[in-house]
Amino acid sequence: MKKQTITTLIGPIIFLISYFCIPTSVFGSVSANAAIGTLGRMAFWWITGAVDYAVTAFIPIVINALFQITDMAKVISSYASETIMLVLGAAIITASWDETGLDKRISLRFLSLIGSAVKWQVVFWYTICFALSAVLPNAVVCAAMTPIAVSMLKYVGIDDIGKSKTGSLLLVTIAYAAGAGGIASPLGGAMNLVAVDYLEQVTNAEYMYSSWVVRFLPITVVLIVSNIAMLLIGVKKQDNLGGSREYFVAQYKALPKIERQEIISLGLFLIATLLCFTRSLYQAYLPGLKPAYIFITCAVLSFLITKKDGTRIMKWKVTAKKIPWDLIYIFGGGLSIGVLIEGSGAAAAVGELVKKANLQSGYLLVLLIVGVTILLSDVTSNTATAAISFPIVISIISGMKNVNAIPYIYITTIGVNLSYMLPTSIRAVPVGYGLKPGYMFKKGVPITIVSIVIMSVVGYLLLKYWSLFSTV
To answer: What pTM did the predictor assign?
Structure first.
């Protein structure tokens, strides 16, 4: 029997074992078992590549139709969510770069500034994406920066990301940094706003965003250093993209003067990003103009770009071939399995199991909170994990005598911001551009383990020895 046939059959077997063999007392219902089995099946197929990634992404629809785990409308809506609209809009805008030649100009600019050493490429992409994610939605950063990196890689001859160790490393770096960077400020994602809401409930006072930055600064520094260190394992000093920095500088200087269509194409991207960044300034006047719809609007405008002779740069039949449609479906599949996990009660059941562990305040409780929330964030959305985790953590702490809930809210926030292993949420973006989920899983497992251990230690030390971490 062929290997592909075996791995294909293992997927349904994982589902059946989960559905029939897990006692209902563990997750609360057979529906929850079905959701867990679906997750296991999808994860196995994604990691092994037994079935096309996009095809695997439709499994939640099939399972929900057969087992009626949750409202089908919620599952279907996952494949046309706001985030997917954002990713689609960003993909269309960056497709215009290829038509105008802007992708080559941007690629050479980045290569001339950073150089071709893989080590410094990893440091650069991680740092800039982490910083941007502190103030922009994670999906915006990942959707915007990934195609830039892909253009750069194509310029140096790396066309197949999945077959390139370097290309895969850079794309996974962007995804990890875009996800982790949200922890640096409350603006980093909706999960942080959930944390702020609970902090205000506990203290009965308005929470100042500046306080967040101060209290999470040690965590941010340790996270950046540890993640970059893990990403650089196996990268040799001599590893590079090919060509010296001086060569790329000369190539960039040799480019012709930037043309009108390139300026417009770049301008649409910058306008979309700037409007996302400054949304708070006009939100009251244009409440419906969310980041997803900003990018879609600019994507529509990109089809109006013309050359000097009046001919259109972008045409749908050509552009459609350049859009990573796999990305759209994989992203939707990741969101929909999260809907099944949450809608079936499986996620809440995990939280209740933690609650029943009856741990006292201390390192083990911190380790459990960080570990469970990081793992949950990998299989459902960060925001959904936050919505489930915070009330459970609050109830655990309220059952203890004279224990301050504030540092435990901060510690829970660490976990709901981090996830590395599966192509769910924004990690679907690099997969849509050719990254193999198996590579992400292989790279993500050790980073997940190290992050759980290190973040638990840091969280506990801050709780124990830094008085500011126990205040707002």
So the answer is: 0.79
